[in-house]
Design brief:
The protein is mainly α. Helices cover 86% and strands 0% of the residues.
């Protein structure tokens, strides 16, 4: 979170030179950072699974392939598309944000549902089977880049919605810089996470001191716990961010009731607590946003799994048959 905000502070530094309203841009960048963090954490938590089953020497090359695909998604596809929409059809941005927020709610709720009611998935089990390593690597990379496209679309849309600039080119440069910075942050962190257990194994076997070998063993034992923690934090962040985006989007579209009610409750609770009232107000708001996100996500699970997913599967099957 702090790393992402530091990167967005660099965006704000550019704004000091190119934008007329520096304070507004800094404030909007901080707001974007707090919301993008939820998507970024989930991205970092999800990506390591794509290197499962490969030799250690193939892990970093696979992550590099996914990183290049992510940059292509952000800079070549999403950046010009979003800038065109923002210029000629700005009213589309809020519905797009809400669509991405609904996706985040579904993903977060689906993870919780799977945790409460564990169930097998033939497609997932097939995907996790190693089989032919070369074919698996190609399939995994393609799958990771497709998943990244959805998360990148949400990240870029959130950032764009919080950029205030009079110049189209400044807006484009800021969005491009932020997209690259987030990509480097996410996949750099993923590379460290993926290779940390290898570092631990090496230290445990080759450490010159007992404390060094103990650190190595601690890294090996601690990495699964770190990945679990990332998954938990990422899931909570997805529900909070997704719920917040939907609620704020409803307010922008002229339906402010839910936003106003949550804000009213948060202010009452914050006023009842004399100390740290600002943090308490934020915490209560985030809690209600997350509860709303979880409820919406649970409602979306049957819609996605029984209607949307089979429809896309049928369309995909037709495409393969045509080839």
């Amino acid at each position: 979170m702090s790393g992402l905000l530091a990167l967005l502070d660099d965006v704000a530094a550019i704004a000091k030179v190119a934008a007329a309203s520096v304070d507004d841009v800094v404030g909007q960048a901080a707001k974007a950072g707090s919301k993008v963090a939820g998507v970024v954490i989930d991205d970092a938590a999800v990506t390591p699974k794509y290197v499962t089953g490969f030799e250690p020497k193939r892990e970093l090359p696979i992550i590099w392939k996914i990183t290049k695909g992510s940059l292509f998604n952000k800079l070549i596809v999403l950046l010009p598309a979003l800038l065109l929409l923002n210029t000629f059809a700005p009213w589309v941005i809020t519905p797009l944000l809400m669509l991405g927020g609904a996706y985040l709610c579904f993903e977060g709720a689906e993870k919780i549902f799977h945790w409460l009611y564990p169930h097998g998935d033939a497609h997932v089990e097939k995907d996790m089977s190693v089989g032919d390593p070369l074919h698996l690597e190609e399939t995994r990379v393609k799958g990771a880049i497709k998943t990244d496209f959805i998360l990148s679309a949400e990240i870029m849309t959130i950032i764009l919605s919080n950029i205030e600039a009079d110049s189209f080119w400044f807006e484009a440069a800021t969005l491009a810089f932020a997209g690259v910075a987030v990509t480097v942050f996410v996949y750099g962190a993923v590379a460290l996470i993926v290779k940390m257990d290898d570092v631990g194994v090496w230290l445990a076997a080759n450490g010159h001191t007992g404390s060094g070998r103990a650190v190595g063993r601690g890294l090996v034992k601690g990495m699964p716990k770190l990945l679990t923690l990332l998954t938990v934090v990422g899931t909570a962040a997805m529900l909070w961010v997704g719920g917040s985006i939907i609620i704020h989007g409803l307010e922008v579209l002229g339906m402010p009731w839910l936003y106003d009610e949550i804000h009213h409750i948060a202010v009452i609770v914050a006023d009842a607590v004399a100390q740290e009232s600002g943090f308490v107000e934020w915490l209560v708001t985030a809690l209600f946003d997350g509860i709303f996100g979880l409820a919406l996500g649970m409602l979306l699970i049957p819609v996605v799994t029984r209607v949307i997913a089979p429809l896309f599967a049928a369309l995909g099957g037709k495409e393969e048959a045509s080839h």
